[in-house]
Structures are given as structure tokens and as C-alpha cells.
From TrEMBL, chain A:
InterPro entries (UniProt xref): AAA+_ATPase, ABC_transporter-like_ATP-bd, ABC_transporter-like_CS, BCAA_Transport_ATP-bd_LivF, P-loop_NTPase
ABC transporter domain sequence ranges: 2-232
Signal sequence interval, chain numbering: none
Matches recorded under Pfam families: ABC_tran (PF00005)
Protein name: ABC transporter
CDD domains: ABC_TM1139_LivF_branched (cd03224)
Gene3D superfamilies assigned: P-loop containing nucleotide triphosphate hydrolases
Alphabetic keyword roster: Amino-acid transport, ATP-binding, Nucleotide-binding, Transport
Family the UniProt entry places it in: Belongs to the ABC transporter superfamily.
GO biological process, alphabetically ordered: L-amino acid transport
Single Gene Ontology MF annotation: branched-chain amino acid transmembrane transporter activity
Automatic annotation (TrEMBL), chain B:
Regions crossing the membrane: 12-38, 58-78, 90-112, 132-153, 182-203, 215-241, 248-269
Organism field: Natronococcus jeotgali DSM 18795
Localization in the cell: Cell membrane
Protein name: Urea ABC transporter permease
Topology versus the membrane: Multi-pass membrane protein
GO cellular component: plasma membrane
Alphabetical list of InterPro entries matching this protein: ABC_transp_permease, ABC_UrtB_arc, BCAA_transport_permease
Length: 232, 291
């Protein structure tokens, strides 16, 4: 459902991505792991359309979306969860979620029930300003916001970043439920061992802007194999 | 008692004037960060459209509606052609809109001459207090506009998306919000509100090519005193400046009322550089931290 072919992208004149090829099938949970500064965030932004690519193609659901702006991609069904959450701080929890309804225009089903089921705190705090919540709660809100519009693909940029370990486990578990119960395809980038091993069914390793390995099954379960690509 | 009624009437008159003159500018500045120095000339468009459609035989309310709609459309066209290239460029936007303002004043003079047909003040005079009933109508419209904007920005999809865009454009875009369209619509709404001010005051103030400048002082002072929050800022600034102006006008005449209002504005800006709503936000934050 998502195909990245020979993706090149740069920040200013510094090339960050140097030919990335990634394939994600519908219903999969795919991770992309790598150390700091190897291009993970750039890759997610390129997929979402927040960064122009220099070369290569992005196909989503059979359509070439490479030249489309981010809002069009979102309405096609990409639910994006930015690094550092980026909830709208002065909007209430309910208003933040309402913004997410715009995602996946072609699908009228809204997932409030599921969102409140995974993250009951969002229902309790629906009238609270998002900026006053803790980092973990904002992370839940960012996921809920991306989920409300029933996206086909959830795109996560380091969901563990700045979130305490107990909440990371909770978030990981809930993302698996999202995938099983709603059938949402998930693509995430991460450098947290727990998330990589407990969330991904299949994981690419990225280094210096290219995919250097692809792990599945036993190799993905092996601590040694995975930490090779994460250790600093 | 009569004294109090007079003060009350004066306050209502000035409050309505500041609110109506300001909201359009406040919406555009607060939501988009564009300081529209041609705001007065958007008001001018509303006034001329009202005057000429009224002169052509349209009933006054419809003529005013025409003023609002034409100004909104005018704003929309200008946004597409010029303003949208200026987002995020505060100083450039000021220079360009100032230029637009000059061109519009001169064009108006060339096309329509120095005077426009007059419209009499409708509805007659109030009993007891010395003043036209129409000023109370203006006050009701002002409160209605504030209520309408509150509802628009609080409850509608458009309002919530507009606020999200204002807080974080990139994230709003990545959530599927067409932020270009948000800006375009917001600018048209702000322009329409400027047109409304022009239309409503066409019967009260003589309509000339410099008509817009008659609104400018109150407008910009109120936006600066009000601060970043569009509605609360406009209401509080209009309330504060209106009270000072009305109180002094009652004692010492219209001119001194204006002077007192400007002095109050200077003091307010000195004490609250971020405007009233900026100060309120700071205060809320410090209270939150001490808890």
C-alpha cells in the first residue's frame, strides 16, 4: 500500500536520504530503526509530504503522491503522528480530535469509540487544553487525533521520544490493538529497542540515508541483531 | 440620572464604533499575522458600495448587505492576487498593504470624485437622551457580530481548523487541513467585517475618499491594546477605551474624550506590552506555576 522507490531528500544542501526503498503491505506493522541523525525523521516527513523529495517516487494505495501536498495526502488516508507530539496546545482535547476527522476523506467512519477505549484519559479530559497535559498524555492525544478519521496508514515519528517507559509500553500495546482491531497499517521510525521489538512485525534498518538491512522473525527478536543498528 | 444615561449612551456609541471598526482587522491580524494597513480602505469599499447601491434604489439594509458582500469579494480577490505571497512577512505585508491603501484612495477619488451621495440617519431620535436611535442599532449589531464570531471560531469546523492553523500551520496541514483555503477564507471574513463597518457608518459619517482614515486610530489602538486574542482582546480593549472616552467626553467634550482615550492607550501599552490578553495569559501561566 506504500511504496518508496529510490527516495532522495535533503535539508538545504545536505543530502539526508540517498536512495531509500521501502515497501509496506496493507495491514502490516513495519518499523524503520536507526541511530540519531541517520534520516528517520526526514523519511517520515518526506512520506507525509512535509518535505520535498529531490528524487524518487512515493506511491500510496496505488497512486503516485510524490508531488502532492501534505493535506491532500492526509485526506487520502495518512494519519501522521509527529515527533514531540505537536498537539495544538490551545485547543481542547476534543477540538484536537475533531481536527483529526479531516483525515481520510473517503471514509466517513469515525473512530471515537476506539480512541476513547484505547485512551480513556482523552474522554475524561475532553475539555482540557491540550498544552496543559503531560508528555505521555499528549502522545496519546496525538495518536488519537491521527486515528479518529480512520486512516489507512498510521505514520509515527519516534513515538517513544520524551515519554516515560511505562507509557511507552502502554502506547506500544495500544498500537498493536489498533492494527488488529481496526486493520490500520502502521509505519514507524524508532530507536527504542522495546518499541522496535514489541511493535514491528518487520523492520528495516537505516544508516546514512539508505536501507542497510531488513529483519523479520528470529532476527528481529534477537537483541544482538537489533542493537547493532541502534547502539550509539 | 440623565447624566448616567448620557454616559451610558456615549459608551454604547463608542464601544460599538471601536468593535465594528476593529473586528475585521483583529481577525486578519490575530489569525494570519498580517497587519493590513489598507483596513481603512476596505471599510471605504463597504461604504461606497452601500452608498451607491442605496442611491440606485436598494433598501438600506440590502444596500448594506451589498457593501459587506462586495468588500468580502474584493478582499478575496486581493488575497489571491497579492496578500497570499506575504504570509510570514510582517514588514513586507505592511508596506504592500499601505501601498494598496494609497492606490485605493486615489482611485476612489478619480473614479467617484470627492463626494458620494449621502444617506440620512434612519430611525429618528431617541427620547430623553440626545442621540439617534440608530446608534443603539449599531450597538446591537456590534454585540451580534461578537457573538457570531465567537460561535464561528468555537463551534464550527471552520473555526476550529482556523485556530489550529494559527497555532501550528505545518501540523494542521499534515492533519488534512487545507491551510491555504483557511487563510483565504479568513481574509475574506475579515474583509467582509471591514465592509460591514463601512456600510453601517455610511449614514453617520460623510463618505469621501478619506472615509477610511476616520476609523484608523481607534482600530489600530484597539488591536494593539487588545493583544493577540482576537475576540477577548477586541471586547476588553473596546470596553476600556470606550469607558475612558465616554467618561471624558461627557465632562469635557468630544475632542478631550479622544485625547483621553489615546493617553489611556499609551498607558495601557506601556503597562501591558503584549496587550490585555497577553497580560492575562502571563497571569494565568504564573498562577498555574505557583499552584
Amino acid at each position: 500500500m506504500l511504496e518508496l522507490t529510490d527516495l532522495h531528500a535533503s535539508y538545504g544542501k545536505t543530502p539526508i536520504l540517498r536512495g531509500v526503498d521501502v515497501d509496506v503491505d496493507a495491514g502490516e506493522i513495519v518499523g524503520i530503526m536507526g541511530k540519531n541523525g541517520v534520516g528517520k525523521t526526514t523519511l517520515v516527513k518526506a512520506v507525509m509530504g512535509l518535505l520535498e523529495v529531490d528524487d524518487g517516487r512515493i506511491r500510496f494505495d496505488g497512486t503516485d503522491v510524490t508531488d502532492e501536498p501534505a493535506d491532500v495526502r492526509a485526506r487520502r488516508g495518512m494519519g501522521y503522528i509527529p515527533q514531540g507530539r505537536d498537539v495544538f496546545p490551545e485547543l481542547t482535547v476534543a477540538e484536537n480530535l475533531r481536527i483529526g476527522e479531516t483525515i481520510n476523506e473517503g471514509d466517513d467512519r469515525l473512530q471515537y469509540e476506539a480512541v476513547y477505549d484505547y485512551f480513556p484519559i482523552l474522554e475524561e479530559r475532553r475539555d482540557q487544553e491540550a498544552g496543559t497535559m503531560s508528555g505521555g498524555q499528549q502522545q496519546m492525544l496525538a495518536i488519537g487525533r491521527a486515528l479518529v478519521g480512520n486512516p489507512e496508514l498510521l505514520l509515527l515519528d519516534e513515538p517513544s521520544e520524551g515519554v516515560q517507559p511505562s507509557i511507552v509500553q502502554d502506547v506500544t500495546r495500544n498500537l498493536r490493538r489498533v492494527n488488529e482491531e481496526l486493520g490500520t497499517t502502521i509505519l514507524f521510525v524508532e530507536q527504542n529497542l522495546h518499541v522496535v521489538q514489541h511493535l514491528a512485525e518487520r523492520c528495516y534498518a537505516i544508516d546514512k540515508g539508505t536501507i542497510v538491512d531488513e529483519l523479520e522473525g528470529d532476527r528481529l527478536d534477537s537483541r544482538e541483531a537489533v542493537t547493532e543498528y541502534l547502539a550509539v | 440620572m440623565l447624566e448616567l444615561l448620557n454616559f451610558g449612551f456615549e459608551f454604547v456609541e463608542i464601544f460599538a464604533f471601536i468593535v465594528l471598526a476593529t473586528v475585521g482587522l483583529a481577525v486578519i491580524f490575530g489569525m494570519m499575522g498580517i497587519i493590513n494597513l489598507a483596513h481603512g480602505e476596505f471599510i471605504l469599499v463597504g461604504a461606497y458600495a452601500t452608498t451607491f447601491t442605496f442611491d440606485a434604489g436598494l433598501p438600506l439594509p440590502l444596500a448594506m448587505l451589498a457593501g459587506v458582500v462586495l468588500t468580502a469579494v474584493y478582499g478575496l480577490v486581493l488575497e489571491r492576487l497579492i496578500i497570499r505571497h506575504l504570509y510570514g512577512r510582517l514588514l513586507d505585508s505592511m508596506v504592500v498593504t499601505w501601498g494598496i491603501s494609497l492606490v485605493m484612495i486615489q482611485l476612489t477619488r478619480i473614479v467617484f470624485g470627492n463626494t458620494a451621495p449621502g444617506i440620512g440617519i434612519p430611525y429618528g431620535q431617541l427620547p430623553v437622551v440626545d442621540g439617534p436611535i440608530y446608534y443603539l442599532v449599531l450597538a446591537v449589531v456590534a454585540v451580534g457580530v461578537l457573538g457570531g464570531l465567537y460561535a464561528l471560531f468555537t463551534w464550527t469546523d471552520f473555526g476550529i481548523r482556523a485556530r489550529a492553523t494559527m497555532q501550528d500551520e505545518t501540523t494542521a496541514r499534515s492533519m488534512g487541513v487545507d491551510t491555504d483555503r483557511m487563510y483565504m477564507t479568513t481574509f475574506a471574513v475579515g474583509s467582509g467585517l471591514a465592509g460591514l463597518a463601512g456600510a453601517l457608518y455610511a449614514p453617520v459619517m460623510t463618505v469621501t475618499p478619506e472615509y477610511g482614515t476616520g476609523f484608523l486610530i481607534e482600530t489600530f489602538v484597539a488591536v494593539v491594546v487588545g493583544g493577540a486574542s482576537v475576540l477577548v482582546g477586541t471586547v476588553l480593549a473596546s470596553g476600556l477605551l470606550g469607558t475612558v472616552n465616554a467618561a471624558v467626553t461627557n465632562v469635557a467634550g468630544t475632542f478631550m474624550g479622544q485625547v483621553a482615550m489615546l493617553i489611556a492607550a499609551i498607558v495601557a501599552i506601556r503597562l501591558m506590552p503584549e496587550g490585555i490578553t497577553g497580560m492575562l495569559a502571563d497571569w494565568r501561566e504564573s498562577r498555574g506555576e505557583s499552584q
